[in-house]
Write a structure and sequence with these properties.
- There is one protein chain.
- The protein has one domain: 4-Layer Sandwich (Metallo-beta-lactamase, Chain A).
- By secondary structure, the protein is an alpha/beta fold.
- It has a seven-stranded mixed beta sheet with strand order 6-5-4-3-2-1-13.
- It contains seven helices and 13 strands.
- Strand 4, helix 3 and strand 5 form a beta-alpha-beta unit.
- Bound molecules: zinc ion (2 copies).
Length: about 270
Amino acid sequence: MDVTLLGTGAADGWPNPWCPCASCADNRRLGLVRANTSALVDDRLLLDAGADMNRAAAHAGRDLTQVTTVCITHAHDDHCHPSFLLHRAWLDSPPPPLRVIGPAPVIASCREWLEPGDESVTFVQVTAGDVVEVDGYRITALPATHEAFGEAVLYAISDGSSSLLYATDTGPWAPGVREGLAGWQLDLVMLEETFGEVPSKSPHHHDLATFGAALADLRAWGNVHPTTRCVAIHLGHHNPPLARLQGLLAAIDAEVYPDGTALHVGSRKTV
Ligand SMILES: [Zn+2]
Ligand SMILES: [Zn+2]
């Protein structure tokens, strides 16, 4: 699988334009802009569709014209901004079929944005534990330690030869994640790391310490091995400036990349 990190930022993005802190100032100085977290898999599978998504795709030099399936984790607007359904309806020709996968609050929110008469969109409501097979992908919904007007989920995705875990937003693994990942040998883990060296202000997000513990869990469970690429996403401005963050992550065999980075899953060497 080829994965493009469309966005790697927390809800407020990083830098937060309202914030004078050193971390935000450093990102401004370096021109490092992190939009709402979202990823594009093989140009066909979109993971999360938050408020920043259209511009994030454009800045990455990508389009979404080949996307057949959108997997949305939860109904917070940095992950689910259903206006994208309307934007598709403004094409010159009828939009191609699209499948939207998500927990109940996501589906309810997206339905409200569908143009009357638009029959191009199919909704697939999932709850943690469900497995959906679409377009050659096996998509497993896992429980998140998070909630947004109801259920939030994470996604484990396999194309039969490589696999990834997309885990945002969440705190320490919810009961059921270990069982849901039994037998998975992951090539890529995208795991949220919202708070950096500041102790997490919420049980629903990770700081660097709990992020490291969550990766250690995956290693202990046999899901993450030495060739697994572990990438921090959903980065907020409580994180330290980039050079320090890179060092702290490297010490726990994890990485951080700018928005727009394309990763070939199954190889640590090709970026
Ligand atoms: Zn979020
Ligand atoms: Zn959230």
